Amino acid sequence: QVQLVESGGGLVQAGGSLRLSCVASTSIYSINTMGWYRQAPGKQRELVATITSGGRINYADSAKGRFTISRGNAKITMYLQMNSLKPEDTAVYYCRVTGWDSQYDYWGQGTQVTVSS
User: Does residue 1 register a pLDDT over 90?
Assistant: First the structure.
């Protein structure tokens, strides 16, 4: 069982910044893609950004230009630098890891990000 532990959420004013972290208890060789997703109250969970083991990055349109996804040197850590935060960024942010087959798919417990206006 893979465990994902997120941290770094909190309350910030609009225009501020936060940095989320995710640590995965697994071998780096098992990971294909790591990603950040979020779910706001009353809404479906949505993709924020993903990064593959080869370094390919994908951002949601809402994240482009404001958020930066990266992986640590150990590559079992992942970060999301969020700048110019808006109230509409308020959500629970989840870390996700997928492997080389469809059954290898794990989620973290989520970390709350609240942006006040």
Answer: no
| Coil, helix or strand at residue 3 | coil
Structure confidence by residue, pLDDT tens digits, 42-53:
999 999 999 999
Closest CA to 4 of 20, 19, 28, 25: 25
Residues contacting residue 5 through CB under 8 Å, at least 6 positions apart: 22, 23, 25, 108, 109
Residue 105 contacts by C-beta under 8 Å, 6 or more apart in sequence? 96, 97, 98, 99
Beta carbons within 10 angstroms of residue 100's beta carbon: 12
Question: How far apart, in whole angstroms, are the C-alpha atoms of residue 42 and residue 19?
Answer: 24
Q: What's the burial of 47, exposed, middle or buried (CB within 10 Å: 0-12/13-18/19+)?
A: middle
CA dist 88 and 108 (Å) reads 22
CA dist., res. 88 & res. 78, Å (int): 23
DSSP state, 100?
S
In this predicted structure, the answer to whether residue 39 has a pLDDT above a threshold of 90 is: yes
